[in-house]
Amino acid sequence: MSRFWLRILPQFLLVGGVTLLIWAAFDAADAFIFLSLSGLIPFFWMLRNLARIDVWLDAPTVESVPDGSGLWEGVFSRLRRMVRQRDQGQHKLETMLHDLQQAIAALPDAIVILDSGDHIEWCNPMAQEYFGLDERRDMGQQISYLIRQPQFVEYLSEPQSDQPCILKLSSEMILSVQLIPYADRKKLLLARDITRIENVDRMRRDFVANVSHELRTPLTVVNGFLETLSDMGDAPDAEMLKRSLALMTGQTDRMKRLVEDLLTLSKLENAENQLSEEEVDVPMLVAQIHQDALSLSGRNHQIELCIETEAGLRGNTEELRSGFGNLVSNAVRYTPEGGKVVLTWKMENGCAVFSVEDSGIGIESEHIPRLTERFYRVDRSRSRGTGGTGLGLAIVKHVLNRHQGRFEISSEIGKGSLFRAVFPPSRVIPGTPETK
Hints:
13 strands, about 20% strand, disordered C terminus, alpha+beta, Beta-Lactamase
């Protein structure tokens, strides 16, 4: 028997007993009147409490649960407990949902929830950034109205596959988009920015192609001369032999420089290769590079050295020698005979600056942002003719990055170029006062 009937049964027995006593003491009519009144009073009390519950259901909170007495006290007490448990459960679910939304919003990938008709139900901030969506304006809109690339519309309409759709939204953003079905014909649209991965892959392909091309030419030349000498038999022409050996030596030197630059670049890019620091006497280093430049020029250029400070740097001598040397050798190679190259070491606004200025052919502005890419050449034929490997400025960039420096390039066609390696004050070992 339930607790309800255990509580109400004594009241029934009491009313029944009193009714029988009245019947015995008086008559049946008096007993019926008593019994009727005993039933009507609880009935009206029940109606009153039901009315209070009806009002409470319009705004069902723990605080507004009615107070009762007797049997209704237990009912309202249990109702109050149930509402409290419901509120606690709802609060817990809301907290979990809020935490989940925050976690999804913090993901680096874009997430869009689509219904069975491909309408947007929800999206995270990254999706708004990638696709230009607005959380309030675009909710309920069909996704194909907002992302109009033909390949995406086709991908959306085709049966789902494991292969993602690659979208090139701009020259600076490439996305990998994938649709995942779930629930009742709903879809989860995931998008990831793969711009860097695609660029790295493109650079890798270009790098392999460029290295192959750079090595193929000298190897073809050397192989051609070897075949020619082999065909001459035991008595090759002395003049021909001398000229062939000189050309083969030049080509092997070119391959050697290319391999050395590749090894240098690989070492600089290796994250495990920690920078070995020391106090570098930059004025002496620049003076040595000046002598190397005179030797490379063959006295065919006017090469000036301007040391305005005795300040040194905290860094790696060999890496700085390689970086500075590549800047100077580039200037000499691309400056016509009789031209001028100026090497300067100075302090500027607390920073140490090594600059190389030449009166060479100059560089068009659209090429300047790409000059530090591997094998990027403004004029390929001229670069190979001067003996360049196409890796010099890439090496300079990596050397400066490892020394927290920055690389500045300015140029004007027909008037020459200025290359500046700027080092932060934290790298400078003080020398003479800064020049103004």
